[in-house]
């Protein structure tokens, strides 16, 4: 790596990668910290309040994944068009982003409001918490058009190389949400539903701000004439985004099934598992923070038809994230007990969770590398292969392995986490092998 960085062009690429990455990493770091605080604020209301809100978490993750995947389609297309210096394609893609954001937002609003009263029943909630859970679900999903604007317009803005503006807006959204939580939950006494009111207001204001930033972006230059549907622009954007969406649906559904295996264990074990997953989140943020910036720079290089630059960015991104995640993995290993103690005072839960976090700490570099490789595929617009990798790794290793370990062989929670690690390792190997097989990526030394 040191020899690689002696080249002036490589140093310039590294500077660009760092400049685009740090706002995204900081943004996700602050969001995670605020989510920790948010969870704690609701947790003080008791188990029923926590359950009322947590029932919606899987649906929220799935909805955000669907919208975010469409945003990746526009990010890849716009970044490539910028590399081609084709201003008309950039402008038209920005117009299509408006149409898609409004369309998917309205569609998902209708769907989610239609199932709001059924959702708690499907999730097996006790009758006494179903009304609050349904109302919270309505609150956070009623402004889905604004949430779509945040995710899709934010992706389009990042594609232009501006990662700071989406960071500022998303940090504002989370800070506002936390402040309003205090007002609605404690001062006004609305309880768990108050958290829903707070989120709805934060989404609406955040969506307005992101739309304003999107319209004012000097590169996108969106105009009303570009908003009507254009098949030649929309088709390639969806062609990239839909496989990403399917990949995330496969991942989410796999997580739900795997959680079902663990929930059949003792309550202490399940609590340790859930808290450990939450505690680990903050340590793999660099991987996802670098994903969008890597995709943007790869897309630019692709548009420039600069294969050497594509390889250089890929090598730099993978080398950088591996080193960073070695550091975060070490911090996770030595700080595992401290992280568990932030979320619970139960000594047994802390003991089990600490073991789990130390098991997974060694594979943080692998996990981060997979996230960055997904960014490389997104930038290249080749998103179908990662979809099949996700099916094979998530369902063939993690789900099937967890089923055999828990339901057939009667093994403990550690075995489930080893299956999760196997999933991560296989995914990294397959994604890396796929990159080496791509034309132009077969030799990183060129």
Largest sheet: none
Can you tell me the overall shape? globular
- Give the integer mean of the pLDDT values: 88
Task: State the share of residues found in helices, binned by percent.
Answer: over 70%
Task: Give me the Rg, rounded.
Answer: 22 Å
Count of discrete domains: 2
Low confidence ranges: 442-446
Order of helices and strands: HHHHHHHHHHHHHHHHHH
Structural class: mainly alpha
Strand segment tally: 0
For the record, give the distance between the C-alpha atoms at the N and C termini, rounded to a whole number. Answer: 14 Å
Strand content: under 5%
List the total number of helices.
Answer: 18
Keywords:
2 domains; 446 residues; mainly alpha
Plain-language structure description:
By secondary structure, this protein is mainly alpha-helical. The chain folds into 2 domains: 1-25 and 239-446, no CATH class; 45-229, no CATH class. It contains 18 helices and no strands. α3 (57-83) packs parallel to α7 (144-159). Mean pLDDT is 88; it is low at 442-446.
Provide a short characterization of the protein structure.
This protein has helices spanning 8-43, 47-54, 57-83, 87-115, 119-122, 130-141, 144-159, 164-187, 192-216, 231-263, 267-280, 285-304, 307-334, 336-341, 347-361, 364-380, 384-408, 413-437. The chain is mainly α and 446 residues long. The chain has 2 domains: 1-25 and 239-446, no CATH class; 45-229, no CATH class.
Break the fold down into its secondary structure elements and pairings.
Elements lengths: L7 H36 L3 H8 L2 H27 L3 H29 L3 H4 L7 H12 L2 H16 L4 H24 L4 H25 L14 H33 L3 H14 L4 H20 L2 H28 L1 H6 L5 H15 L2 H17 L3 H25 L4 H25 L9
Helix pairs in contact: 1-8, 1-12, 1-13, 2-6, 2-9, 3-4, 3-7, 3-10, 3-12, 4-7, 6-9, 7-8, 7-9, 8-9, 10-17, 11-15, 12-13, 12-16, 13-15, 13-16, 15-18, 16-18, 17-18
